[in-house]
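#struct-pred

JT: dropping the chains for the assembly here, can someone run the whole complex?
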Amino acid sequence: MPSTLPNTMRGALLTGHDRTELRDFPVPQPGHGEVLLRMKASTICGSDIRCIYHEHLGKGPEGYQGVIAGHEPCGQIVVTGPGCRRFRAGDRVIVYHISGCGLCNDCRRGYMISCTSPTHRKAYGWQRDGGMADYLLAEEKDLVALPDELTYTDGAQVACGFGTVYEALEKIGVCGNDALLVTGLGPVGLAAAMLGKAMGASMVIGIDIAQERLDLALKLGLCDHALPSGEGNVEQIRSLTSGRGVERAIDCSAHPAARATAVRATSKWGRIALVGEGGSLSLNPSPDMIHDQKTLYGSWVTSIWKMEELVDRLVRWKLHPEQLVTHRFDLDKVDEAYALMATGKCGKVAVCFDEELSATV
Ligand SMILES: NC(=O)c1ccc[n+]([C@@H]2O[C@H](COP(=O)([O-])OP(=O)(O)OC[C@H]3O[C@@H](n4cnc5c(N)ncnc54)[C@H](O)[C@@H]3O)[C@@H](O)[C@H]2O)c1
Ligand SMILES: [Zn+2]
Ligand SMILES: [Zn+2]
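RK: done, full complex below.
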């Protein structure tokens, strides 16, 4: 270990009951195939709020094991353990947020999110220490190189939000023929609007209940129309699309009414992706799906190779996910960061370190 590294570091736990707890931990030493990252940016996801922050509700892959929180980490390698094959000290990297066994069929497809090993599948920030700390121990196989054109705060959002949305948009296929509806304009929905436009959608319509999020979507130019959520949404969308409805829709709200709107406001032969997690959905299959020949997809995170592809596309499209970040906090103020994200009166919220803390978009 370099002599300049401290022995201890700060790390934040989510205790439930809307609280965080900052504690001192030993700085970990990388073992075989592992690296130690200096954290640079660690963003907060809606799933953290839904499953861990208010209460420890999650089960199975969403079960929180009392580890350092944060599953959207991006940083710079400071030490590599023995046996590392590609990355070196000084490299800027994104961490694919679930470490899998590497050997099951899902891992071999690059979808460590679905790793079937009950002992080796561990998500950063859920079952193994995550990014809300000064340093993070990661496995080299979980790393994606961060190009020079992207900032660490861009990279943090590729892990989870943008990767998830890229996968879902690829499943439904978005191009210049399509009007795209995004229900739920949290950071994930805003990412869907940003990538949907870059993939060619000729009109993007967003829906949310929070005025702050509708305003942000318009201010950033991500949506052509931003509609307050309500019973008239399907009619409003039809009138914006010559009576037909949108060709593609993606739900990022998880709300049953917004999900039903996404399905019902989609035109004949259209495709819809469900991304928002939890809750329920009630449909009348014949009029809502069957007679209009629609296809409904579920989409969970993405593969590590698609994450690499997305990073390349972000550079080509000159997109900066950090545009969605409205607030940056020092790790000492991590409590304020989670509390703000839980209000929903914000865009993406980031805990940042070093040069990323003072950076502005
Ligand atoms: N499928 C996956 O792989 C995956 C990955 C990451 C996150 N998620 C999920 O995606 C969802 C969005 O994540 P986020 O970080 O943006 O969370 P978020 O909670 O910030 O965003 C949800 C948004 O939906 C809005 N909303 C609530 N009710 C609504 C309604 N009736 N109509 C329209 N909008 C409504 C909220 O105001 C909020 O802006 C969460 O459910 C999260 O767990 C899924
Ligand atoms: Zn997430
Ligand atoms: Zn596996």
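JT: nice. The chain has two domains: 8-146+320-358, 162-298. Residues 45, 47, 71, 160 surround zinc ion (ligand 2) (CB under 6 Å).
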